């Protein structure tokens, strides 16, 4: 059985018609073409974080929301705009996208900038699904 993904994008990413490439899902979204919302109480990138508040106060992107009387939006670092759905465009990253990466696009994180490169600069290419995955991400998560 062969599973096909839209434009060859892996689950956890979607096709960006402007840049003509697959991009990681925004925090709070996952699955094929980023169509699945994180289920409560999960939130954030790849639904890896957990809300410690009621379902009505748990935002799928940012987690527990503070109740305020003033309209206020606080975005995760690297994201901006209404509902924080826009992300910094390469090579920019950080608060209000004011910093600039001096590394290749796959190594530029919208929140923290250039990721450390493993000593062998290893990348993995999964030929069967056409998905390119950085071993670096996995190694950083394990070490972190």
Automatic annotation (TrEMBL):
This is Uncharacterized protein. It comes from Magallana gigas (Pacific oyster).
